[in-house]
Amino acid sequence: MPRTERLKRRAASRASAEEAAAAQAERKKSKSWNESRFTLGQQMDQDRMARVEIERAKAAEKEAEAAKLRDWQNSVGTSPTSVTAQPHSEIAETDEPPALVNGGIAPSSAHPGQAQPSLASAETSPPRPSRPPRQPPLQPRSIPRLSPPPPPRRTGTVSIKFTPKLLPAPARTKGAAADRELPPDPLAAPQLAGTVAPDAADISQRDPAWLKARGDRHYTLRDWASAESAYSHVLSQFGKSIMGQAIDCVVACYSNRSVCRIRRGEMLAAAADASEALNIVCKARCVTEFPKPEEALQRARMRLYARRATAYAAAGVLHRATADLHSALALVGATEGMTADPGAVSDRSVLTMDLHAAQEREEAAAKLRQEAAALVAHCANSGEERTAEGQLELTRARELLNECLGLQPLDAATLAQRATCLVLLYEPSAAAADATAGLAELDAEAARDGVERSMMSGLFPPSPLPDEVRAALVCRSDQAERVRFALLESRGAARAALSQLQEAASDLRAALKLRPAHPSVLASLDEIARRAVAEGVDLQHLPLAPPASPEPAIAPAAQPQGKEAAVVEARAEATESGSTGEPAASSSAKEPKVVSAGVPPPVGTRSAALLKGDADGAVRNGKLEQALQLYGAALQADAAAEWLQGTATGGLLFRCQCLANRAACHLRLSDYNACVDDATAALTALDAIADSMAAAAPLRLKLLARRGMALSRLTRHMEARDDYRRAVALAPDDAQLRHDLSAIEKACETA
């Protein structure tokens, strides 16, 4: 299908998907509005019913109080109507005016039935002195008889105890002054984990639900930085553990934050977020009353795979992007079978086109890498006899590798090839940078493999990848050790060219652990050691003793610290115990002396030899831990100067002796893995020594026997049998070796 047609189909599918998404959003908005309106109506009805109930309760309470008042009035025998209507019913009242007597007012009779004097009698009677009229006596009112008051109560003391509060009460129940009061109990109130911001005083500003809603708003507005910050605050609340009810929230935050980081160009961080979300989804499900259906869970997982694939593809990790796109397509097919969703069809078409694009990029990068590898290998095999044509080939190879890294910026194999090419082009700084980037990518790839293994071990593991994709991932994982060796070798060569001898030696030693007895690495180490001696560089940063002093003298102002101080202390203890630097019983007496008596040793040789002698004395005294430290210090000392004494293999033999003695200490301390490592390193180094050297044979016999014993204790009987067979071949008359070999062969047969 031509590219224009594919672009048209992609645009059409994208437009249809956007229309469907807009329609779905409109439906959701209408549904939300209707639900909120219905909820508001229901709430108003409930409020109205509550007010009616309150009024009814008030009326009933008033009626009950009125009834109580009437009952009380009846009990005391007083009618409120008679008292208020006739307050002075006992006093007679009249509306007629009083009679005139001699121009005054005649006094009213005291009693209604009393006879009044007539006018005639008044005229004939003698006059009396004037005095105030006599008022009739008032009749007392009828006051109800009240019961006597009760006697006073007796006094007493009542003790009241309150239950102590474990948590402080809210401010609204205690007043504003309570905000400044410390709680009486030291138990603090429960709070959310961590503080989002210094000014986040309100608990709502630390609520994960509120923060996620805030992040969703910024996400909708395409404010990626603010959305990422909000999602990060949510995830900080679940740094140690995730509660079952919050699993969906955490997964959504990781997923949305990965999109924010993709938009901001942080591809590897976005892929890490998607990996975290997938790891959670594969291990647990959200514990809620209304769990998500399986279709929604599959679609969420599909989105995570698609987003991680986008991040990997943009970062240049194409093999991971291809695997994730295959997983996403498998999930789209599963959801498409559940429901006839047009969005699933659109997703499938988009994912398919992205997968084809990633595969095309990967194939183009592989072709460029193969062509460049052929050019680099041709120039590397030519050695130092490089012509102008070879220089042009290297330049062409670098251009091809640059183009390949434009398609796959983080491919470790391509970085290793370009580092080798740059070393051949005498550009050590760029070569060291490429090698460092490649080693970092190998470490990141190992971490990604760990995440995938963790996902597969969960309760809900992902579906397996297609066979060809899984085979490609396994092949790349198997080649990781070879690529790491090439990167370490290239960086060691580049650092040696930059005169960084210590760092170069460290890289080459790490490469030698991956491929023991590699001739080019051994030759490079030997060359670096010679240069270090010539330039006076200490490869291991050890405190060296002055050549004229038989014992190392350390000034008070330059006292060693840490591990070096422990080594000096161990040497002092060994000296006090009477060690004279003689070889231990485990080492052969026929082994040649490393330091010649006639020629003064170079700087650093005396320190290494004395350390080994002190270690041998510690072994004789039974101080195995101290001997381990001293043998390690002797190995770390600058023994490169000894390599120039007599033969080129004298210093190497010295190191093998130290390794053999340290392996014996590990074996006696039951540290069998360390014993195997030391013996293997020594045997690998001895393989580089010529067979004509008589001192190497007895040392090899000891190393084979010690490694075989350690392997048998580790139940690695097949490897132990091989070592004992080689040892018996070197010493056929040794009865103990033959006895051990027969026992190990029986163990192999039973296993």
Automatic annotation (TrEMBL):
<dbReference type="InterPro" id="IPR052004">
    <property type="entry name" value="Dynein_assembly_factor_4"/>
</dbReference>
<dbReference type="InterPro" id="IPR011990">
    <property type="entry name" value="TPR-like_helical_dom_sf"/>
</dbReference>
<feature type="repeat" description="TPR">
    <location>
        <begin position="701"/>
        <end position="734"/>
    </location>
</feature>
<feature type="region of interest" description="Disordered">
    <location>
        <begin position="543"/>
        <end position="601"/>
    </location>
</feature>
<dbReference type="GO" id="GO:0036159">
    <property type="term" value="P:inner dynein arm assembly"/>
</dbReference>
<feature type="compositionally biased region" description="Basic and acidic residues">
    <location>
        <begin position="45"/>
        <end position="71"/>
    </location>
</feature>
<feature type="region of interest" description="Disordered">
    <location>
        <begin position="1"/>
        <end position="191"/>
    </location>
</feature>
<feature type="compositionally biased region" description="Polar residues">
    <location>
        <begin position="115"/>
        <end position="124"/>
    </location>
</feature>
<protein>
    <submittedName>
        <fullName>Uncharacterized protein</fullName>
    </submittedName>
</protein>
<feature type="compositionally biased region" description="Polar residues">
    <location>
        <begin position="577"/>
        <end position="589"/>
    </location>
</feature>
<feature type="compositionally biased region" description="Low complexity">
    <location>
        <begin position="13"/>
        <end position="24"/>
    </location>
</feature>
<dbReference type="GO" id="GO:0003341">
    <property type="term" value="P:cilium movement"/>
</dbReference>
<dbReference type="GO" id="GO:0036158">
    <property type="term" value="P:outer dynein arm assembly"/>
</dbReference>
<feature type="compositionally biased region" description="Low complexity">
    <location>
        <begin position="551"/>
        <end position="569"/>
    </location>
</feature>
<feature type="compositionally biased region" description="Polar residues">
    <location>
        <begin position="33"/>
        <end position="44"/>
    </location>
</feature>
<feature type="compositionally biased region" description="Pro residues">
    <location>
        <begin position="126"/>
        <end position="139"/>
    </location>
</feature>
<feature type="compositionally biased region" description="Polar residues">
    <location>
        <begin position="72"/>
        <end position="87"/>
    </location>
</feature>
<feature type="compositionally biased region" description="Basic residues">
    <location>
        <begin position="1"/>
        <end position="12"/>
    </location>
</feature>
<dbReference type="InterPro" id="IPR019734">
    <property type="entry name" value="TPR_rpt"/>
</dbReference>
<keyword id="KW-0802">TPR repeat</keyword>
